Amino acid sequence: MAVTGRAGSRPGAHVCGIDAAIGLIGGKWKVLILWELHDRTARFGELRRGIPGVTEKVLTAQLRELEVDGIVHRRVHDEVPPRVEYSLTPRGRSLNEALGPLGAWGRRNLLGGAGD
User: What does the pLDDT look like over 77-115, one tens digit per residue?
Assistant: First the structure.
């Protein structure tokens, strides 16, 4: 599958697949957003409560980037007040699956076998 959005906007910008993937999810918050959306749809407030320390401004920016990159789907319900829900796209679910072994490695090697 070809990369679209910001991550794929500069041909030759990445030297390998790992570099490209890390470029897509780099930083502290995106992987935590992916984890929060792992098996559910969530509203903005739920995400903010589930990710301690993230500011509203940063969460908004990170969600927008993930949406542009085809990782997160944003659904706006036609209600008053508007209800907005976020979920993973098929691409986002496959990315989360790929991150699973990395999380297991971190638990074993950095957290001493502790849980998530």
Answer: 999 988 999 999 999 999 999 999 988 999 999 988 755
State the pTM of this model: 0.81
Is-contact 69 27, C-beta < 8 A? no
The span from the first CA to the last CA of the chain, in angstroms, equals 30
pLDDT tens for 10-31 read 556 777 888 888 888 988 899 9
**What is the residue-wise DSSP string for the chain?**
----SGGGSSTT--SSHHHHHHHHH-SSHHHHHHHHTTTS-EEHHHHHHHSTT--HHHHHHHHHHHHHTTSEEEEEES-SS-EEEEEE-HHHHHHHHHHHHHHHHHHHHTSTT---
Neighbour-count burial of 86, counting CB atoms closer than 10 A to its CB (0-12 exposed, 13-18 middle, 19+ buried): buried
